[in-house]
What does this fold into?
Amino acid sequence: MSESQRKEINDDFDLEDDENEDTQEGKYLSFRIGGEVYGIEIRHVTEIVGIQKITEVPDMPQYMKGVINLRGNVIPVVDVRLRFHMQPRDYDDRTCVIVVNINDASIGLVVDSVKEVISILPDQISPAPSVSKGEVTRYIKGIGRFDGEVIILLAIDKLLYNNQIKVSL
Amino acid sequence: MFKDMELEFFRVFVTESRELIEEVELQLIATHEEAERTGVVDPSGINGVFRLFHTMKGSAGSLGLNNIASLTHKAETLLDLFRSGKASLQSDHVDLLMEAIDLARGYLDLIDKNNSDKGREDERESIEKRLSAAIDSANGKPAAAEKPTNDRNSSENEKRQSSAQIFKPELTRENAHSETNRPIVEQFVEEAGDILDKSEKLLLELEKSPAGSHQSLREIFRGMHSFKGNCGFLGLEMLENLSHKAETVLELVVDNQLELAPEHLMTFLIVIDSLRQGVGNLASGGPGDFEGLKMVEDLLIQLENNLSTEEGKSPKKLGQILLEEGAVSEEQLLGALEKQRATIGEVLVDMGATDHDTVEMALKKQSEQAAKAPTQDKGIKRSDIRVDLQKLDKLVNLVGELVIAETMVTRNPDLRDLVLENFDRAVHHLRRVTSELQDIAMSVRMIPLAMTFQKLVRVVHDLSRKVKKKVKLTLLGEETEVDKTMTEQIADPLLHMVRNSVDHGLESSEERLKLGKPETGKITIEARYEGGEVWIIVSDDGRGLDRQRILNKAIERGLFKGDSAHLSDEEVYAFIFEPGFSTTESVSEVSGRGVGMDVVKKNIEKLKGRISIRSKPGQGTSIYLQIPLTLAIIDGMLVKVGTSQYTIPLLSIRESVRPLAKSITVTPEGEEIVRIREDMIPVVRLHRLHGKSSKYTELHDGILVIVEDQGRKAAIFVDEILGQQQTVIKGLSNFLSSARGISGCTILGDGAVSLILDIGGLIEKAGDEQLRII
It folds into this structure.
């Protein structure tokens, strides 16, 4: 994704936007991992940056790649592919880090590429399929449809906090 | 020129008035709503509005804004009636006042536009007419019916003059915590705390040395007077009552230049305690009540009586005695007194030594000199300003960010190979400025330990009375400054340690005398800077720690088994930091429950400090608190392991060596041990611990950094040492909290992140995982 594209998306939202929360209902940031398109609620996203040097931190699960320096803030970074037990992929110039903020804690998510900000109406969202009780499906908030595409909507808080408990030695 | 200044004045007037109006309007509305609901009016709301109009009137008058001046004057007059209780605030009054406020606002807008308040005279006149009507009818009403005095305090009310007293007490209790009053209450609480602290300090000083007491007493009197005024303003009845009584007695003392005996001072200390209780009650949402008002008041009354009779006891005046003895007649006495009363100037003129004018001139000179001479009262005045702590934190954070950003610019890899002379010079300058800014930002949050220490004075004083021991507390290095959070965190530990000393450390008076020690026990609290740390030492000259008793207790609690002979005294004393440890037979109210020292240790460790004890039986005990000065910046040693750069806190490093192959031994379990002089130190291969790869595999190719934590040593194997630097510690996110051996991270000059090693955790982790050399 180019700088300008990224900037455009960044301009769509501010860093501190409690006021904007209401206007952000139903808006999702879509991104690609593997062959699928995923989406997360925009109100959790603080910014998007290109992939940069990650400093490894010991004693962490595989998907916890380490930390990056974001304008003076040190933020942990999760490789979503590895989190979903997919094959890892080399980082290229389209790889992005989506920085989300949950409960005042920031964390970065490494994704293959970022697409755009879209609005999905509640009637366009179907509940997650309960066919497979796999671990990953727990993080799925629902399946959304936009512009003919199917977007897997993720519950970010579940994605991050479940793993918090699992991390131990 | 003048016009410009005038415009400036207008600008300022408009801005300030607008601010005032905003504040006051809310108050008035709230007051009114309360009044509608409860039928009673809150005086502080009225006071605020009164002040608004009063201030505006004054400024408008001096700026020639006659319309505003006239309007506000009328409004102020009406409000004064409410304030003094001659009239009670009704709904219509509130509406009228709101209209007046609106018009005032309108005038401010006019000034903005036209630089004059000409206009809207009709409206003004209409409002003023109605205000006058209200004033007249208020004046016409019989005063008795309007005064909502409280029956039970009516007799005391007559004695008292404070205006707030006239309002019903109930209304103020409820309203003290209404939304609009919250900030007022908070400010009151803060200021009250200051006044009470200062007064207490002065009283305690007076106890020790009555010299200069008149000045101190006057100050305490002034403080009590302000306190009383503030309480009245907020309608805090109980507090006002007590402080008023105290003020009265103090007035008696100050006016008659009486001396106060220790018992008297004690009475005032009790007063201050009660007042503090009340303020605390107010701060936590209550109406400012406290217990034992009657008891304290009685004490004051008693004191008052004592002092009055002392006055009477003072020797009869000479003239009186002569008269009684018949040595002089009354006319002679009166004539002499007249002569005596005449000032020196008058006497000289009478004598003919000089004339009236000369005396006048001399008097003038005297007053000029007096004005110039600095009054002794002033002393060194610190110019202070209250700052919101959040703002301060933000500021300090930003400065930290600035330091990092500055390094990122000046050490940017893009510039690496360029030769830029001018740029370099500019960089030096930038670095100097940033560095100074950093120092100041760090120091901004620093406050002297004096405040924390002072609180202990009172504690020791009360405690020593309770356990009936004579104790002298000496404070050294009070001016040592530490970060504000640190003062808050060490307050409790210090309190506990001092309590221990008084309660258990110091022997009773008889014992001390028997041992040939001075009867008064000594407790010294000293603060000083040592290296990058603040050392606070609490020592007493009591009986010291009993090694055997501690050992017995430790064995009893299963904390230790086996041969104790090789344990150093310090190691034995360290047992008292275990939770639940206490060797006293009897648990006193003061201490001895055994919940103290371990909490103390935890608190100190939270500040990343250390605590240690030294003691000599029969001579005393000293507890050393060693706390790093700044929590956020440490000196670190940057080391390279493979492709990663780690930072090792300098304080933990003992030395670094390049080992010789023959100094390395491998145990049967595969642990590597290096021999440094007499020590056998286990080796920690950092890269293996963290699952990385290192450049060198042979220990003798790399470097061993010998570190120590709480007596345990380890040798960290690194590829190379990159150098020392000051590191700004950035906490590690919660998501990474389980990383053992890492205490935080920092950002290096080139933007890379370097993990800061937590030596203690590292050693533990290395111990858990038995590493094998493959």
Summary: Residues 141-176, 374-380, 589-594, 770-774 of chain B have pLDDT under 50 and may be disordered.
